[in-house]
Amino acid sequence: MRPPPLPADRDPGDNWAYAPDGTRYWGAFGAAGLLVHSPDRGVLLQHRAEWSHHGGTWGIPGGARHAGEEALDAALREAHEEAGVPASAVHPVGVHVLDLAVWTYTTVVAHARDPFDPVAGDTESLELAWIAVDEVDRRNLHPGFARSWPTLRSALAHRPAIVVDAANVVGSVPDGWWRDRRGAASRLVARLSVLAASGIPDAGPGLDRWYPRIVAVVEGAARGVPAATGVEVRDAPAAGDDAIVAEAAALAAAGHAVTVVTSDRGLAGRVAGGAETRGAGWLLAHLDAVAPRQ
């Protein structure tokens, strides 16, 4: 069975990439796919049309990246086009990258935060189905997905969250923050928002980059700072340390793997056992890489 003809106005990414030995891979700029996990229903898999590459096997919705398109955006777009996945119904938590030098495939791991039923939007699917995690190995899997599945499966259970001791992080840099504590906290939240969008490479095992839930706890004169995209802000009603301990405990109870960012040894001791701790320098290094101080 032959594939449908490509439209004349297709994106330049809808083409083959070639290795020196002549091996070809779909996606001139690489490809990306979305692995959606629902605790109640399993993972969303696509039974690939017979005409497609490795047709008849099971994999995830995905396809070629468009020119200038980020892998995360490509995965969400392809999942919507092929399986009707609403971007608003999923929360990306990390990415796994297969890098073959001439071509990359990025798997975006996401949790379903709202229920939805998949709907085939084109001819690339024989079937779309929620498959229990323990039953995935029983399917005839696409070879690439089969190789990645052990790593991806272990990542499904990891839900990273970072609680930031904003006063401690702001206070670790002598840049005049004491003259405008709210302004300094606001600048930190803005930089955290950039970090939330770019992801963090060492926020969990297995994947190349993670998108953890980020909560900044502010206190005193810094209270009232608004939240930003990807960043939640908590005003400490009294002592900031008490609010950070409570936030870390609540996130851990909800199933998150919690990291508290603080260089305060006393606070680190209070959250030990329920959360990992990292010093302010760890966070500042990541912030400087994606959102340098102005």
Tell me about this structure.
The structure is a single chain. The chain has seven helices and 15 strands. The protein is of the alpha/beta class. It has two domains: 16-156, Nucleoside Triphosphate Pyrophosphohydrolase; 160-290, Rossmann fold, CATH 3.40.50. Strands 3, 4, 5, 6, 7, 8, 9 and 11 form an eight-stranded mixed beta sheet that branches. A five-stranded parallel beta sheet has the order 13-12-10-14-15, sandwiched between helices. A two-stranded antiparallel sheet has the order 1-2. 40% of the residues are buried.
Helix and strand topology:
Elements: E1 16-18, E2 24-26, E3 31-38, E4 42-48, E5 58-59, E6 62-64, H1 71-83, E7 90-99, E8 104-112, E9 125-131, H2 143-156, E10 160-165, H3 166-171, H4 181-198, E11 209-210, E12 213-218, E13 231-235, H5 240-253, E14 257-261, H6 265-271, E15 276-278, H7 280-290
Parallel strand pairs: 3-8, 10-12, 10-14, 12-13, 14-15
Antiparallel strand pairs: 1-2, 3-4, 3-6, 4-5, 4-9, 7-8, 7-11
Q: Compute the gyration radius: what is it?
A: 22 Å
The CATH fourth-level homologous superfamily of the largest domain? Nucleoside Triphosphate Pyrophosphohydrolase
Question: Major beta sheet, specifics?
Answer: 8 strands, mixed
Instruction: Look at the structure and give the mean pLDDT.
Output: 92
Spans of at least 5 consecutive residues with low confidence: none
